[in-house]
Specification:
Bound molecules: pyridoxal-5'-phosphate
Strand content: 15-25%
CATH superfamily of the largest domain: Alanine racemase
Order of helices and strands: EHEHHEHEHEHEHEHEHEEEEEEEEHHEE
Number of strands: 18
Number of domains: 2
CATH topology of the largest domain: TIM Barrel
Oligomer: single chain
Strand order of the largest sheet: 11-12-15-14-13-16-10-1-17-18
Length: 363
Amino acid sequence: MNPIYRPTWAEINLDHLWYNYLEAQKELKNKTIIPVIKANAYGFGAIEVMKHLYHKGVRIAAVSLLEEAIELRTVFKDIEILMLGPVMAKDLSVASEYKIDVTIYDQEIYEAIRLFNKPIGCHLKIDSGMSRYGLNEPNQIIRIVDELSNSTHIDLKGIFTHFATANENLAFYQMQLERFKAIISQIKKRPRMIHISNSSSTFKYEKDYDFTTHVRLGISLYGLSLDDPKPDLKPVMSLKSTVVQIKELKIGECVGYGATYCPKDDEKIAILPIGYADGFIRRNKTGYVEIREKKYKIVGIICMDACFIKIDDQVQLGDVATLYGGLISIDEVAKRLGTINYEVCTSLSYRVPRVVKVGGKHD
Ligand SMILES: Cc1ncc(COP(=O)(O)O)c(C=O)c1O
């Protein structure tokens, strides 16, 4: 790991990550979890997350981009890597070289794969109603699967779909499910992997399905969920910074850009070296941070590299402040920002070092 100098970091608890994995596995009997570690494992650190999963025996992962797949392959030589996003025809030789399984998402990429003369693994994606990537014409899908079952260079490993509303609209979910089932029931020779569930569907419905073999698990691995009630998951990330300076403001003095916060009384302000360039965006200014197990209000405008906290005499120079992952959950921050937990964690920028905690200790 690169040396860390800045007193701001995200603590990643890999014991909790594994706990969450096992909680999902309980729903699945002998089906296999495909951990979704796209977007730097949703901001939690793809290589460190995969190292831990690998150490526990996991040999498969899914990402979105070819770049993400190659980054993984460079470290993990013997895992299956599924690229969920759209591969470009010009890049098939790169995917083949790095043994990355690509997604057949439309007729054009299917033609390109068919004409490609090197070995390549792939999964066919059915668009069952989300209108994102995938084929939706049943006859076309059945014909492609049929043709691929005779191919000598293309290994069709799986067929999958993705749900738009697993956590909210049951009728729409069921419509997608029925469309998918109707198509695969007509496929004579099914590939060895059939996967439809994301986190929400894994915990809510997957145990009812006898036709699937795998699930693709993202957000719940990281201890988060959009479901209510939530599955029993443990939080994996806490974002921390340090009180590096304390200012004693006198009446009439103001804080930060725009001088927007000018207290009416003498007041103490702590400065934390974390700002919007770290993904702690300006809209967080209405929120709180935790110091010494107490919540303190963010004041003024959040800078690129710093923010201001109204404190009391209990707070000392050098105290650790937890921006989320302690008293303040990622869900609370998402609510504050009018977004979802996925966006909060994936927005944490590359500048914030991810510090791994495993076996109750820092690695
Ligand atoms: C195709 C696909 N499968 C699985 C997942 C994982 O979903 P979740 O994070 O809700 O488990 C995603 C995430 O966006 C996805 O795009």
